[in-house]
Amino acid sequence: MDIVPTTCLCGNRDGWPVSRTSDNLVIVQLCKHCGMGYARNYPDAELLAVYYRHIYRDRTKDTPETRWNKQVEHGKDILAWLDGDIRFPISRMLDVGCATGGTLHPFWNSAFFYEGIDQNEEFIKYGQSRGVDVRLSTLDEVTDEYSLILMRHVLEHVDDPLVMLRQCHDRLNDGGYLYVEVPYFFIERGAPKEQLLSHHKWHFRPETLRAAMQAAGFAIVKEEQPNHLRILGRKTGTQNGACYHPPYTRREIRSLYLRCLYYNLKTWIRNHTRVFFDR
Fold this sequence. Notes:
The chain is of the alpha/beta class. The chain is built from seven helices and 13 strands. It has helices at 45-54, 56-60, 64-82, 121-129, 161-170, 206-215, 250-278; strands at 3-5, 15-20, 27-31, 37-39, 41-43, 90-96, 111-118, 134-136, 146-152, 172-183, 202-203, 218-224, 228-235. The strands form three sheets. Strands 8-7-6-9-10-13-12 form a seven-stranded mixed sheet. It has a four-stranded antiparallel sheet with strand order 2-3-4-11, covered by helices on one side. Strand 9, helix 5 and strand 10 (172-183) form a beta-alpha-beta unit. Helix 3 packs across helix 4 (121-129). The chain is globular.
């Protein structure tokens, strides 16, 4: 188990440090080649598995019941957002990283069969007690095909987002849909540091998430950037054989870097001014 240097999705390791995470444990870089935000160093797969099994839930401070209630409300929002682009009811759907499975509950009348997978045993047991078909598993172990896959706040955690997106592609029916939601890196009304968590390896903007999904073989149906970034992709006939393409020019990446510095400085001044006047 070790902390290892991160290579960006584009294969580059050269980046500008833009901020530390909110707990000051991890330095986040902006790739000079493609503009992706990523953790400079990150736990290897073995250490990460220990973290998610024993530490992660304690840091989130959510009880299973609290998580269930939050997920049910968010599931209603997702269903409303998808309605009109997907013709419901559908045959089968899968929620990857389902936690308690509460997100699936509002879909009970919109899919003939739905299931969820997660690695948190406590959440899975709670979801099963609420009558949702969820199980302790990973995407590698899934062999069925689906009409819709949900992946909410998962992609920023995984070792290689392109591998996971391609795994989703392989498990969808022809013309099937993938819903992806991630934190929005660098929302302009706040400083990067306030949004960065040390257990997130990747920090997406609309352009970088769009490029990753297209590289994995998805046509973008629609996207939205409220407090988080979400995209609906439709499976194309074949995966794109090309690698992840840089979505930004060098000039645009430099501009992003300067804006990150600006928002960090603005937040630092605001916080220190507040401390001064509170004395």
